[in-house]
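ok new one. same drill as before - structure tokens go in, u give me an amino acid for every spot. 401 of them this time. try not to just spam alanines like last time pls lmao
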């Protein structure tokens, strides 16, 4: 809902200013009038989402983690929740996050709890975030829960940064390599082929292949673009099918090198989120549901949904997860120990840390292997072009002699 800034006079005739949420300026004026405020000026806040367009995706994990930690600090200092959020509003610079905080503050002023106020700001605040806040408010340990949430968000951002940094150099090499090859095939090779135009000798197969590829790129580039666009459209339509999505996610887990790497990341996320929810007082059934929704892979989501049904019937988590190859014996064993000793949340947190370390090690090895593979691939591609051009030149020299 849009946010409007207003200036006016209150019941006692004093000047007042602030913000109000409403669908239209007229609705904002009527809402202020009901509160006893005579508005003299109303204007839409620049950063407020209007016309159904949302900028929430611009709030990243670092900003959300910092906001969570600041709120934890204020709540831990025994500041009332409304005053803590109001302080964050004053401290935050104009932008989407400030608009969100203003809406949360107004809901708190209406008597809603913090979890209910945040729930209306999804997907900025995930379901796991809201559930943990609700559990912390119910248990009286909201500041501790918010600190844990901030730590978790910072860890997730650190993982994302490591993956992004690791992929930056190989992606740059791939883009540069493809650009060089396209330039050679579209502009350089056609000029060289004029040397062979009057030559009646048979060209080597490798040269014929190169010339065919060059011709396709020069004359049929629009067909390639249409085919690429059609492929993208078809893929997006197939992605709407749950069955196709499930098959794709299952296939990704079986990819050489990439599959095991992705599985370690999913296991680290599963163990960390589930352990965090359980340690925050969220019931295990609800925690399993939230954890399943937090995992992007449909194969894991589907199994965790079935596992939750078994847990509702009285089954044990370790026995249920042990029937799937998606969960390694190490994790199953640690969960079993946690169930027997009553320290399931602590064991899950340890498992999450262990899998995160394995993911870091595997990522380092993967990138160490990927870089020379990329260099070798570029060398082979350029070598193919050089050999395809030089072979007929050598043949011409032989004919001249």
């Amino acid at each position: 809902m849009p946010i409007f800034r207003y200036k006016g006079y209150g019941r006692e005739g004093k000047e007042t200013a602030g913000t109000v949420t409403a669908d239209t300026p007229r609705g904002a004026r009527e809402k202020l009038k009901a509160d006893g405020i005579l508005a003299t000026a109303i204007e839409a806040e620049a950063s407020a989402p209007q016309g159904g367009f949302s900028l929430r995706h611009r709030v990243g994990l670092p900003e959300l983690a910092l906001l969570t930690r600041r709120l934890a600090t204020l709540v831990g200092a025994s500041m009332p929740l409304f005053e803590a959020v109001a302080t964050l509003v004053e401290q935050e610079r104009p932008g989407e996050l400030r608009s969100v905080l203003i809406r949360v503050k107004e809901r708190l002023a209406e008597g809603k709890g913090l979890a209910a106020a945040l729930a209306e700001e999804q997907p900025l605040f995930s379901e796991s975030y809201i559930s943990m806040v609700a559990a912390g408010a119910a248990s009286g340990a909201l500041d501790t829960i918010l600190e844990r949430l901030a730590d978790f968000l910072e860890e997730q951002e650190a993982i994302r940064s490591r993956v992004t940094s690791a992929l930056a150099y190989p992606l740059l090499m791939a883009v540069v390599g493809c650009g060089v090859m396209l330039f050679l095939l579209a502009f350089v090779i056609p000029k060289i082929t004029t040397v062979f135009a009057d030559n009646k000798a048979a060209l080597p197969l490798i040269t014929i292949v190169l010339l065919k590829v060059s011709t396709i790129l020069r004359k049929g580039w629009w067909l390639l673009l249409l085919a690429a666009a059609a492929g993208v459209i078809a893929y997006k339509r197939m992605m709407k099918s749950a069955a196709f999505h499930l098959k794709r996610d299952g296939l990704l887990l079986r990819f050489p090198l990439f599959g095991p790497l992705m599985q370690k990341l999913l296991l680290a996320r599963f163990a960390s989120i589930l352990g965090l929810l359980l340690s925050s007082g969220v019931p295990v059934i609800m925690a399993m549901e939230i954890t399943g929704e937090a995992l992007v892979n449909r194969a894991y989501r589907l199994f965790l949904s079935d596992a939750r049904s078994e847990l509702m019937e009285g089954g044990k988590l370790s026995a249920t997860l042990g029937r799937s190859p998606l969960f390694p014996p190490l994790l199953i064993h640690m969960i079993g120990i946690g169930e027997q000793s009553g320290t399931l949340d602590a064991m899950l947190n340890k498992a999450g840390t262990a899998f995160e370390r394995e993911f870091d090690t595997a990522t380092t090895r993967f990138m160490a292997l990927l870089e020379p593979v990329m260099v070798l691939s570029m060398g082979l591609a350029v070598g193919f072009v050089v050999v395809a051009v030089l072979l007929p030149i050598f043949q011409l020299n032989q004919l001249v002699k």
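The longest helix spans residues 344-400. and btw Confidence is low (pLDDT under 50) at residues 46-57.
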